Structure formats: C-alpha cells, structure tokens
Amino acid sequence: MEAVKLEEIKENKLLGRKEVLLRIDHLGKGTPTRKEVREKVAEMLKTNIENVYVISIRTEYGSFISWAKVHVYDDPQRALQIEPKYIIERNTKEENEGK
After folding, report:
1. Overall pTM surpassing 0.85 (yes/no)
2. Which of 13, 26, 57, 74 reaches 20 to 30 Å from 38, CA-CA?
3. Cα separations in angstroms, 10 against 19, 62, 89, 94
C-alpha cells in the first residue's frame, strides 16, 4: 500500500464506533489484504488492532485504487456483540492461521 487516505469518518456513539471510509492507492500491486488494512488503520487512528474490523474492500476496475469500509470500536468486547460472526471470522482468520 503506497498511500492510504481517510476520506470520511463518522462517529456512531450509539454503537460505540467510528465508521471509516478509506481510499487506498496500490500502484502496481494487488488489492491489499484485510490484515494489512487493519494494521494501517490501527496505526493511523492510534488504536489497538483488535478494535478494527474491515467490512469491505472494493477495487475500481482497471485501476490501482481500492475503497475500504472499516469499523473502529472503542471497546473490543462491544465489537464482538455488534459485528456479524462472518465479519469477525474474516478479520481474525489470518491471525489464527499463523498460530
């Protein structure tokens, strides 16, 4: 990932999370993995990676630009209550495979 830009951040106080829209430029490379996006967002927003869940990553046809929707929770336990099971599995799958 060469450049990541926070296009939009919405504060959802009811659910205790930030809803983030990212623009990712990845010239000459494939679409970034969820793990890479989670790490970058956690670094940018100065939070723990356990609070970050990538909802979707979409790459524009014929370009090296991807758009990602990410939820950043204040509390990791709150995320486990709210996010669907399949989203949690997609985001933690790569971490569990390495163990």
Report:
1. yes
2. 13
3. 5, 29, 24, 27
